[in-house]
């Protein structure tokens, strides 16, 4: 039996003889592999972008919102009433063991002024936990503290968009800005987060202490009420448990029973993440499947040409058998040739695929993600296509009768 | 003299669809080491079938074929491939060299399948080419050589594995009369050096260069006689032993 090396030499020689044909045969595989790599790169890039956006909200989060209540036969929509209080939030933090942090908040908007600049933005009243819950970083200054909340101080944190618009390049820390004409001291600047999955600018925000917002800024008629409570579970594993604990606690605190409908709702944000990841995974698989079809078509092209090649070289096969080549040798020779064709095609396709993905990334601005795994799998797949589609022609060659083969014209 | 080939009562039957063709109907003969035998007969006489069996490309339906004392009729396909590789050298009418391949690479081919290392392959191929008078032509491609030269490359290829027998199937069928004599003189020279040669031909004047004539008709040997071989004039470029 000849060595693999010998078969490789023979195969290389055979392909050199028919360069144009070899290239055209490879084209199917080239296109197939290039398509698979580019599609998977684009698909996984898009799904990474989406999951990055979702995780920028914060991880392992439950969002507790005020529910609907019925008054006089009219049901209000979800969040339409003000049933959640700061005390609810503190109780959740104190009594639910699976909860790591609780960030009650109220939301308002207002005009902000600094010097001759002004900007309209969203103002949240928050507690210090908000920074942890939402995975914010503080790039300058400090977080607001519990004593800021308790003392209802006029300190605030500003997002990057606000900082850019009010301060340009200068350092905002310790500067006084006016929010709805009330002076606030900027104690810290939040790091950049970018867009939310809904396309909102998450950096266009100001955080003030919760009490300050409730009493001085938003002027609510129920000073203890909060707009929503973000609850962060200790880990992804206990998220469901935390949801149960919060539900039980709120049911108890709000005296939910047969005669009283539930006046709050809990949304599990990691479900959103799971759903989105699922849909982008489906998209990746779909793109990959479409691309693999072209790979299979390329494989059939290889088989076709290999069959032609076997017929053309019947005499050569006869000579080789007559002078002592075994069935295995002939099989190996043609299999090597097929695999060589597909792996060469695979390599070229890989380069084209990577280049194509980069091109899409730079022209359309879609992110692409090329993983080493994809490349290894694509390469292994192209070799596999060679073995699969090369086997039948190779076996046909190996089982030729040497007497007939030598007489073949 | 020792025996290289022993055919005993060999029968070969082909089935082509409905039809059964009895190509050999009980052929027996032996060949001693160092003989130069020609097998003759009209087409359809069974001489080609006999050649295929002698060449281990086919096995007898009945009867036995001993090559160097081994009953090759009982060997597996792979073992037969090895016998062809190690003990037999083939020379065909149509030369059957690989296209777009140099003379040396063609000659090396049996050694590739015998898994001889490259450096030894090269040395042995060059030596075999020298024996057929083609020293210096090893880098030529098959299509750059004349018919006679191509056939000499084929003979070198048959020689290179130091076989027990060289089997030649109408080796001069595609050559003009002058080249025919040239090729026959090479065979005679190799035979003088002790190589056993069995040649199929239908041309009596080619058979005249051999020392034994076996004549086939209708699947049977009808005549088997020693012959006073005519000496082919030695062309200048063929070195003597």
From TrEMBL, chain A:
The chain crosses the membrane at residues 21-42, 285-310, 331-357, 369-392. Residues 23-249 form the MacB-like periplasmic core domain. The keyword Transmembrane applies. InterPro entries: ABC3_permease_C, MacB_PCD, Macrolide_Exporter_MacB. Keywords: Cell membrane, Membrane, Transmembrane, Transmembrane helix. Residues 290-402 form the ABC3 transporter permease C-terminal domain. It is found in: Cell membrane. Its main location: membrane. It is a multi-pass membrane protein. The keyword Transmembrane applies. It holds the Pfam family FtsX. PANTHER family: ABC TRANSPORTER PERMEASE YTRF (PTHR30572:SF4), MEMBRANE COMPONENT OF TRANSPORTER-RELATED (PTHR30572). Belongs to the ABC-4 integral membrane protein family. This is ABC transporter permease.
């Amino acid at each position: 039996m000849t060595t693999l090396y010998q078969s490789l030499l023979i195969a290389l020689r055979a392909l050199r003889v028919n360069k144009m044909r070899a290239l055209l045969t490879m084209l199917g595989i080239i296109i197939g592999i290039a398509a698979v790599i580019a599609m998977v790169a684009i698909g996984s890039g898009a799904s990474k972008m989406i999951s990055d956006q979702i995780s920028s909200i914060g991880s392992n989060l439950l969002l507790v919102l005020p529910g609907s209540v019925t008054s006089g036969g009219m049901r209000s929509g979800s969040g339409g009433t003000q049933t959640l209080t700061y005390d609810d939030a503190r109780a959740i933090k104190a009594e639910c063991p699976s909860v790591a942090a609780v960030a009650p908040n109220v939301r308002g908007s207002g005009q902000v002024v600094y010097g001759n600049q002004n900007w309209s933005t969203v103002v949240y009243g928050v507690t210090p936990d908000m920074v942890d819950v939402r995975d914010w970083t503080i790039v300058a200054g400090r977080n607001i503290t519990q004593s800021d909340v308790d003392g209802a101080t006029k300190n605030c944190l500003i997002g990057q968009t606000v900082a850019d618009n009010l301060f340009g390049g200068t350092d905002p820390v310790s500067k006084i800005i006016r929010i709805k004409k009330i002076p606030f001291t900027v104690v810290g600047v939040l790091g950049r987060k970018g867009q939310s999955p809904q396309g909102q600018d998450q950096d266009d925000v100001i955080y003030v202490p919760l009490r300050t917002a409730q009493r001085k800024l938003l002027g609510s008629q129920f000073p203890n009420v909060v707009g929503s409570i973000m609850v962060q579970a200790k880990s992804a594993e206990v998220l469901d448990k935390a949801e149960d604990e919060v539900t039980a606690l709120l049911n108890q605190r709000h005296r939910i029973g047969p005669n009283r409908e539930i006046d709050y709702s809990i949304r599990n944000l990691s479900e959103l993440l799971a759903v989105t990841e699922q849909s982008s995974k489906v998209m990746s698989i779909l793109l990959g499947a479409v691309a693999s079809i072209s790979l299979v078509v390329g494989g059939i092209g290889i088989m076709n040409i290999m069959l032609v090649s076997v017929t053309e070289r019947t005499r050569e096969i006869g000579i080789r058998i007559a002078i002592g080549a075994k069935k295995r040798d002939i099989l190996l020779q043609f299999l090597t040739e097929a695999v060589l064709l597909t792996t060469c095609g695979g390599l070229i396709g890989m380069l084209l695929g990577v280049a194509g993905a980069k091109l899409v990334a730079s022209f359309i601005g879609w992110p692409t993600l090329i993983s080493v795994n994809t490349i290894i799998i694509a390469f292994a797949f192209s070799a596999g296509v060679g073995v699969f589609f090369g086997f039948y022609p190779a076996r046909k060659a190996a089982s030729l009768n040497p007497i007939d083969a030598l007489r073949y014209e | 003299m020792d025996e290289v080939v022993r055919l005993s009562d060999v029968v070969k039957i082909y089935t082509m669809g409905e039809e059964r063709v009895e190509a050999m109907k009980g052929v027996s003969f032996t060949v001693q080491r160092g003989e130069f035998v020609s097998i003759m007969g009209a087409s359809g006489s069974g001489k080609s079938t006999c050649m295929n069996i002698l060449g281990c490309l086919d096995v007898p339906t009945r009867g036995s074929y001993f090559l160097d004392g081994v009953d090759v009729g009982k060997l597996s396909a792979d073992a037969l491939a090895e016998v062809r590789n190690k003990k037999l050298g083939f020379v065909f009418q149509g030369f059957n060299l690989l296209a777009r391949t140099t003379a040396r690479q063609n000659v090396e081919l049996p050694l590739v399948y015998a898994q001889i290392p490259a450096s030894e392959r090269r040395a042995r191929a060059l030596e075999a080419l020298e024996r057929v008078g083609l020293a210096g032509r090893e880098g030529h491609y098959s299509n750059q050589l004349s018919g006679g030269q191509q056939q000499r490359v084929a003979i070198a290829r048959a020689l290179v594995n130091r076989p027990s027998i060289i089997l030649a199937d109408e080796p001069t069928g595609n050559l003009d009369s002058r080249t025919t004599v040239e090729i026959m003189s090479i065979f005679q020279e190799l035979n003088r050096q002790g190589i056993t040669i069995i040649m199929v031909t239908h041309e009596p004047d080619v058979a005249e260069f051999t020392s034994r004539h076996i004549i086939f008709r209708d699947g049977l040997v009808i005549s088997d006689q020693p012959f006073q071989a005519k000496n082919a004039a030695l062309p200048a470029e063929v070195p003597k032993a």
